[in-house]
């Protein structure tokens, strides 16, 4: 592959809802779509692969376990003004898992995509 992307796969239960979420609210661009099975969106060097139940990534494992959407793994997006981003996203009706927390490296909050996957917004300490 000639492109330099970090690639992350998220299992989602509705590919179009996930595409709409990431492109409308988080600045991703649709790269390709084979909805309802699969789509991929990009933001900078991140290629986010959105795999629905009909995709190969969503199929049951040989032992019968079925992959499910959501979980504690997350992509980490750096923002310049966390408070402004949180206000904008709350206004758009986006769900959050917690309130802003501040630690030694900066401040962060977790938002939830339509399938229950987490996205961390992070503002580094200045």
TrEMBL record:
All copies of domain VOC, residue ranges: 4-124
InterPro entries linked: Glyas_Bleomycin-R_OHBP_Dase, Glyas_Fos-R_dOase_dom, Glyoxalase_1_CS, MMCE/EMCE_epimerase, VOC_core
Alphabetical UniProt keywords: Metal-binding
PANTHER family hit by this protein: METHYLMALONYL-COA EPIMERASE, METHYLMALONYL-COA EPIMERASE, MITOCHONDRIAL
Protein name listed in UniProt: VOC family protein
């Amino acid at each position: 592959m000639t492109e330099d992307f970090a690639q992350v796969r998220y299992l989602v239960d509705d590919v179009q809802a996930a595409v709409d979420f990431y492109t409308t609210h988080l600045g991703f661009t649709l790269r390709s779509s084979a909805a309802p099975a699969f789509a991929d969106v990009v933001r900078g060097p991140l290629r986010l692969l959105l795999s629905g139940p009909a995709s190969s990534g969503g199929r049951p494992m040989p032992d019968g376990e079925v992959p499910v959407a959501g979980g504690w793994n997350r992509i980490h997006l750096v923002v310049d003004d966390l408070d402004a981003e949180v206000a904008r996203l709350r206004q758009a009706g986006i769900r959050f898992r917690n309130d802003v927390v501040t630690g030694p490296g900066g401040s962060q909050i977790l938002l939830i995509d339509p399938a229950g996957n987490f996205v961390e917004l992070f503002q580094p300490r200045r």
